[in-house]
Structure to design on (213 residues):
């Protein structure tokens, strides 16, 4: 696996911990950041994982940046690519060669609230619940087929920060679990959408419960 980050890397840490605990039988061979200041790079280094910084500001176009990512991933013979707070919009140059082996996590109950400021939007809409969704990445921004979704309640007087903390806690459970399913070959992206154990996954993803393995 390779994990792509731009920031603090708490999901990256959840993957590092899941691998160390034997819950995820995979090797994180590379962590790539587009942001040289990403705190997550230190988490990778602490775990003895190779890191690369590929700074998008050094490339003229999105396509050239994406090609540099693809070259680096191919050089490392990466099978599965995990986007974990990677704050770049990807082009077909990147998505096409990794289609079906490229996952993202988004901090909302997709298809609600693609894009940014998801927690503020859920609060503004007076939603009763928020959450996170792991999905396959396709060309549509935050629009690829959902795999696994976890819900948390929105409590009276919650701020966006309160909600972000509650949602992050479930992100750290569902993202390594979805990757585990991929590694165990239980998860696949087909022309008909995302499948789990050969069955179609519902359009909002499998709903997380603590007994899921
Ligand atoms: C998470 O909220 C994730 O849902 C979104 O980016 C954030 C990454 O956080 N895609 P971290 O860097 O893993 O702490």
């Amino acid at each position: 696996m390779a994990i792509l980050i731009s920031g603090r890397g708490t999901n990256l840490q959840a993957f590092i911990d899941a691998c160390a605990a034997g819950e995820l039988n995979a090797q994180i061979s590379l962590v790539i950041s587009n942001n040289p200041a990403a705190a997550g790079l230190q988490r990778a280094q602490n775990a003895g994982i190779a890191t690369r910084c590929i700074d998008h500001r050094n490339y003229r176009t999105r396509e050239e940046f994406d090609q540099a990512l693809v070259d680096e991933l191919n050089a490392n013979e990466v099978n599965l690519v995990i986007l974990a707070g990677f704050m770049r919009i990807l082009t077909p140059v990147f998505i096409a060669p990794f289609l079906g082996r490229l996952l993202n996590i988004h901090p909302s109950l997709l298809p609600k609230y693609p894009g940014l400021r998801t927690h503020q939007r859920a609060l503004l809409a007076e939603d009763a619940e928020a959450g996170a969704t792991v999905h396959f990445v396709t060309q549509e921004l935050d629009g690829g087929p959902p795999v696994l979704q976890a819900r948390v309640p929105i409590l009276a007087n919650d701020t966006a920060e309160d909600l972000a903390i509650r949602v992050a806690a479930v992100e750290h459970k569902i993202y390594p679990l979805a990757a585990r399913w991929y590694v165990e070959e239980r998860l696949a992206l087909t022309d008909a959408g995302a499948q789990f154990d050969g069955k179609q996954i519902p359009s909002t993803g499998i709903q997380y419960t603590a007994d899921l393995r």
